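Entry 14. Structure prediction run on the chain below.
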Amino acid sequence: MARFTRIKACQVMAETGMVPVFYHSDLETSKQVLKACYEGGVRAFEFTNRGDFAHETFGELNKWAAKECPEMILGIGSVVDAGTASLFLQLGANFVVGPLLNPDIFKVCNRRQVAYIPGCGSVSEVGYAQELGAEVVKVFPAGNVGGPSFVKNVKAPMPWSSIMVTGGVEPTEENLTKWFDAGVTCVGMGSNLFPKDVIAAKDWGKITQMCKDALAIIAGAKTK
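Output returned:
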């Protein structure tokens, strides 16, 4: 079962402001990336269900993280159906993220008191997700849906909304400041935080530094 409560998971996302999004079929590479992010200050991490036997990698990674990165809240992403959500909940996923909104996943996650963060592309979907119990909603693909202006316009009539944006997020001061000025709770960041050449070179220190830099920018943007 999950080591962290749904409230704790959402609080940490809001406090740090960033959730790295990563997948790799190699367990050792995944461990090193997770550790690099942890050392960079990350405390919520989304491993994505993107490849064959991803659940096996996740299960081992989660057990390893409990010992080596004890404060890391590890969740699973790219979940589109209730069966898959159930599988990862059995492996200890602390939160579940999807590219779409599936009401059946809410039933599974709510029963276990685990946060489900569904992907939403419209104001109606954001509202529906909140009705079903979402603490945080994910706007995806954020850059295509409407960017920071979409978030700002959603927050105007629905200021209680806690929004994570994924897609179109970059670890730069200009990009991150725009998102947080618009009112996001946190950002999900994937390939821009994990350049292929850096992963290939196993330059874990580079990833740690990129995380530190991004979190510093976010902290500054949140205090404005």
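The beta strands are 18-22, 44-48, 73-77, 95-97, 115-117, 119-120, 137-139, 163-166, 186-189.
Filed with the rest of this week's runs.
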